[in-house]
Specification:
232 residues, alpha/beta, 8-stranded mixed barrel
Length: 232
Amino acid sequence: QPIRRLDDLSVAGFEALARFRSPDGQLVGPDTLLGMGGDTDWTAIAPVMLLKSAQTLAALRADGRDILMQVNLSAAEIARPLLVEEIAAIVREAGLPHGVLRIELTEQAALRDFDGALGALAAFRAAGAGIVLDDFGAGHSSFAWLAEIPADGVKLDPKLSRMIRHPRACRIVTSLTALIRSLGMTVTAEGIEDAEVRGELHAIGCDYVQGFAYDLPIRLPDIAVAFDPLPG
């Protein structure tokens, strides 16, 4: 799914989404697949996602697209020791600049083993990957998380992003985005379904926007369509 710059709505990058073919032939996400039961080795999926994302990113950048690619990993995937070596090899073989392939980590995943996640993310950065804190503001330890984890960017939890038209909530989110940016990180408003809030999001300091108001998830063969100007 595309991630767009708020100032001009150009494509800044993509979040790679895992989709699987269900028994009835439909493409479904991980949550739907889990609901169907069966055995799935989720730790085996991460290297494939990272490799395909890196290859796609390298091809797009070779065409002159100055973009990022973000991949969401679970706590189990991040805890796997070999992942650091795999990331280093993937970044190196794809010839990617440092930090353009980025790993997204949700707060809930980090809190399962905060110290372990902190060490793993530092290792990922040393291996050439960037770090994005996902669903920021959804839990109870966000500020400790913000202080400790060496991240390049933060994605606001969709509930926070959607509250900016409420005066009290807007003041909180405005202060939060200012704090995040003062620490040298970018801010993405995620889960946006109403394009009319673009002005407010830009005014409070968000750098990027992601959501159905602008883009549905697209398949890899159709990725060039994302770079077409948006209607209106």
